[in-house]
Amino acid sequence: MKTLLKNVGIYKDHVISEHQNIAIEDTRISGFPDVIHTEEYDTIIEGKGMLATPGFVNTHNHIAMTVFRSYADDMQLMDWLEKKIWPAEDKLDSDIVYAQTMLGIAEMIRCGTTSFADMYFFMNDVAKAVSETGIRAALCRGMTGCTPSGMQALEESKTFYQNWNGKADGRITVMLGPHAPYTCAPDYLRKVVALAHELHAEIHIHLCETKGEVENIKKQYGKSPILLMDDLGIFDCGCLAAHCVWVDDADLEIMARKHVRVAHNPGSNLKLASGIAPIHAMLQKGITVGLGTDGASSNNNLDIVEEMRLAALIHKANTLDPLVIPAETAVNLLTEGGAKALGYTDVGKLQEGYKADITLIDREGLHWYPKNDTMSLLAYSANSLDVDTVLVDGKVLLRNKEFTSLDIDKIRFEAERTKDKLFSSL
Amino acid sequence: MKTLLKNVGIYKDHVISEHQNIAIEDTRISGFPDVIHTEEYDTIIEGKGMLATPGFVNTHNHIAMTVFRSYADDMQLMDWLEKKIWPAEDKLDSDIVYAQTMLGIAEMIRCGTTSFADMYFFMNDVAKAVSETGIRAALCRGMTGCTPSGMQALEESKTFYQNWNGKADGRITVMLGPHAPYTCAPDYLRKVVALAHELHAEIHIHLCETKGEVENIKKQYGKSPILLMDDLGIFDCGCLAAHCVWVDDADLEIMARKHVRVAHNPGSNLKLASGIAPIHAMLQKGITVGLGTDGASSNNNLDIVEEMRLAALIHKANTLDPLVIPAETAVNLLTEGGAKALGYTDVGKLQEGYKADITLIDREGLHWYPKNDTMSLLAYSANSLDVDTVLVDGKVLLRNKEFTSLDIDKIRFEAERTKDKLFSSL
């Protein structure tokens, strides 16, 4: 199966070049031919005026929390969790998680997202939705060691890994998902590390999201969460750490040395008033950073272009330096940085041999005029709904802003049905 | 001329109600009939599933700076101004300003904006574009007292007021636009105040945008820019103050007492690393606040929904309080707050007798599902490209996401032509 993306601008090797072609053979990019023989291709996508970028990567999500989108906002964190989220999460089932995951995946594809990392429950249903929709994902079963189901979650994680890692034509990878240091005690985390080594699985964990949690861990263990995780061996497994808002220089040194990869969630961190993660300092130390939306309950959409915009803007004001996170850095966080954060080695660049995860962006919106610097237009002006075409693993999932195979009316209907079912049970 | 918006959700009196009708007679809202007689209306707009809000208001713009969108980013402010913007602004002409204003107005209408405040040069061309496109605007000729053209700018402002205030069926109001305290000395500002009193014109000015400018004014005059403006009588004219990032409690007291209205430009303030304006404190003191994009050179789009999102998010993290700027406050900044900031008394609410400036939002995007709280969906999840229909002064300017009368291909072409003309002259 050979596909050609014809006459597109492409973001490659840190610059954007116009009037390029991208050839795809099966699931991978096979080249960038100057001269094209149209008879060689099964599918030709005319891309005139479009911009091709590596598919966008959402590095931190709890995707089925779409059911809680705008369900309970403008509350204090503990009120929100104790009175709203936890009682409702207790009533989730496989049916609800599957329907809400389908909604979240469709929303992400519409915004140009080709892969995502997820941590939640009923992960078989999430994996099933990933498999069916064609998106790529790094999935983990969230584990809270402090609850009675802690040991069961470890067992489930193992089974989930065995059943799904490498499945869906290799589009699914499975990680282990201990929730956070404040919900998983050291003894529990040691068990997670042992299992990670046994399975050769990597770890996805929340770290240093709020000031309070960092202070509590320091009080309890006499060291920062980062140092505690390092001592427990979490970082020796390969680690995707979400948030990292409240980290100091000593923490950053450890993170850099141990190749901790960071999921930066600016929208969620702002909305929950957690703070602003020092990603400028992280990038200076060579730490890999990608962008995440976090769950729709705290964002409230899964629009990764909005996260790029936030990342491009908020660090400038936070450091009072207009030169931090310039346009190309923001675009890199959205694409290559995100792919690296998820541990991919052949995803995230437009390069021969890389997986054909590609987003085509329509540049005819008025906010793309006049046509000055394209990188800057993408970073500072683009809208997620400009996304026109999305390919994952060489397969076209969105074309002319329409889904090629997903039944969107059914997805909307099921999202409503399962939302009503959940809230009527409370 | 009678128009009916049928079966819409409406944001009115601080809440959203479904299945409502809005009747319009000529330019104004005439009522909200429960029972409708379709034969009474000349035009019926079926709004099933749509949400009607007061038209969005962009309270601070330099609209023709669309020509500089993504022309020169990621630079230090003075480098950017001295090496890029000022030399290029020197080459602007009437043709360029008109074409770029048409582009900016079309972009704003596409995003649901029904009125805006503008400060720039060649304002006759801006007013002509406002008149032709059907949008509402509060316009002023930017005046920099420190340049040789300072006195000429005052004269031009007077003529501009006389020629255009109240024109375009009352859609245009004219203000006086002294640029800022650091570009207009006290003697010059006294002349502006005298002219304002002579014409009964209000004032639009930049205040306290950067920390450095506030420090310099304090050094030079021994008082804050706010206190200096108060002493000069600027606030006695009715004043729209853009930015107000670096204001202290004493400044806020004066602003509240003198009814200074604030144009909050979060995107521009973040991008230029100016800082974060304390709008939460302003609102607590009863100060009127609206949202602005500032010019596209420092934003880089004119997407006022993006500004609402930023305003809803950044102040939570900045104060570490998730309860500040809740959903309804954010929506109010976008609509009624903005209209009040521009000095309108019959624009900015869905209320009988008010001007029919109305934005209809399509809620079928996946990010609007499942349908939990609508106000929260609007504040935290909506996308500007969800805007489906826009009315200003009772006239439909956008319908089904298409312009009813603007020739968008021509606007794009002219934006490119005049951009090329400008930059080839440098």
TrEMBL record, chains A, B:
<dbReference type="InterPro" id="IPR032466">
    <property type="entry name" value="Metal_Hydrolase"/>
</dbReference>
<keyword id="KW-0862">Zinc</keyword>
<feature type="binding site">
    <location>
        <position position="60"/>
    </location>
    <ligand>
        <name>Zn(2+)</name>
    </ligand>
</feature>
<dbReference type="GO" id="GO:0090614">
    <property type="term" value="F:5'-methylthioadenosine deaminase activity"/>
</dbReference>
<feature type="binding site">
    <location>
        <position position="209"/>
    </location>
    <ligand>
        <name>substrate</name>
    </ligand>
</feature>
<feature type="binding site">
    <location>
        <position position="294"/>
    </location>
    <ligand>
        <name>substrate</name>
    </ligand>
</feature>
<dbReference type="InterPro" id="IPR050287">
    <property type="entry name" value="MTA/SAH_deaminase"/>
</dbReference>
<dbReference type="InterPro" id="IPR011059">
    <property type="entry name" value="Metal-dep_hydrolase_composite"/>
</dbReference>
<keyword id="KW-0479">Metal-binding</keyword>
<dbReference type="Pfam" id="PF01979">
    <property type="entry name" value="Amidohydro_1"/>
</dbReference>
<feature type="domain" description="Amidohydrolase-related">
    <location>
        <begin position="52"/>
        <end position="396"/>
    </location>
</feature>
<feature type="binding site">
    <location>
        <position position="89"/>
    </location>
    <ligand>
        <name>substrate</name>
    </ligand>
</feature>
<dbReference type="GO" id="GO:0050270">
    <property type="term" value="F:S-adenosylhomocysteine deaminase activity"/>
</dbReference>
<dbReference type="GO" id="GO:0046872">
    <property type="term" value="F:metal ion binding"/>
</dbReference>
<protein>
    <recommendedName>
        <fullName>5-methylthioadenosine/S-adenosylhomocysteine deaminase</fullName>
        <ecNumber>3.5.4.28</ecNumber>
        <ecNumber>3.5.4.31</ecNumber>
    </recommendedName>
</protein>
<feature type="binding site">
    <location>
        <position position="62"/>
    </location>
    <ligand>
        <name>Zn(2+)</name>
    </ligand>
</feature>
<comment type="function">
    <text>Catalyzes the deamination of 5-methylthioadenosine and S-adenosyl-L-homocysteine into 5-methylthioinosine and S-inosyl-L-homocysteine, respectively. Is also able to deaminate adenosine.</text>
</comment>
<keyword id="KW-0378">Hydrolase</keyword>
<dbReference type="InterPro" id="IPR006680">
    <property type="entry name" value="Amidohydro-rel"/>
</dbReference>
<feature type="binding site">
    <location>
        <position position="141"/>
    </location>
    <ligand>
        <name>substrate</name>
    </ligand>
</feature>
<feature type="binding site">
    <location>
        <position position="206"/>
    </location>
    <ligand>
        <name>Zn(2+)</name>
    </ligand>
</feature>
<dbReference type="InterPro" id="IPR023512">
    <property type="entry name" value="Deaminase_MtaD/DadD"/>
</dbReference>
<comment type="similarity">
    <text>Belongs to the metallo-dependent hydrolases superfamily. MTA/SAH deaminase family.</text>
</comment>
<feature type="binding site">
    <location>
        <position position="179"/>
    </location>
    <ligand>
        <name>substrate</name>
    </ligand>
</feature>
<feature type="binding site">
    <location>
        <position position="294"/>
    </location>
    <ligand>
        <name>Zn(2+)</name>
    </ligand>
</feature>
